[in-house]
Amino acid sequence: MNGDVCQISVEDNGIGFNIQYLDRIFKPFERLHGREEYEGSGMGLAICRRIVERHSGAITATSTPGEGSTFIVSLPIHQSKGDS
User: Fold this and answer.
1) Is the pTM above the cut of 0.85?
2) How far apart are CA 34 and CA 77, in angstroms?
3) 84 occurs within a structural domain
4) Dihedral over Cα of 14, 20, 22, 27: its sign
5) What is the Cα–Cα distance from 27 to 51, expressed in whole angstroms?
6) Per-residue pLDDT in tens (0 to 9) along the chain, 84 residues
């Protein structure tokens, strides 16, 4: 936790991705690889982003191709007035 924000990091040792595609990986149905190579619908990170943003937070990632990725979720500790 850092002041008014809680950060949660999830790290994997998967295939990673080129950071130039950072904005693209959070869009619905976006895939950096074909279905023949890796399973998935391209919705997982888009759903994560939507959930985090509905809680007034943010999600981002860092990655190195061939080494894995770290996904960072930042959420406010206190709920804003008007949020439910």
Assistant:
1) no
2) 38
3) no
4) negative
5) 13
6) 567 999 999 999 988 888 887 888 888 766 666 556 666 566 788 999 999 999 999 999 999 999 999 999 999 998 766 655
CATH number of 35's domain: 3.30.565.10
Range of the domain at 15: 5-76
Interatomic CA distance for residues 1 and 3, integer angstroms? 6
- Counting Cα atoms < 13 Å in the Cβ hemisphere of 31 gives 12
Question: Taking CA 63 as the corner, what is the angle to CA 8 and CA 42, rounded to the nearest 5 degrees?
Answer: 80
Tally Cβ neighbours within 10 Å of residue 56.
13
- Cα–Cα distance, 61 to 59 (Å, whole number): 7
Contact 62, 19 (CB under 8 A): yes
Quote the number of domains for the chain: 1
Cα separation, 28 vs 73, in Å, equals 18
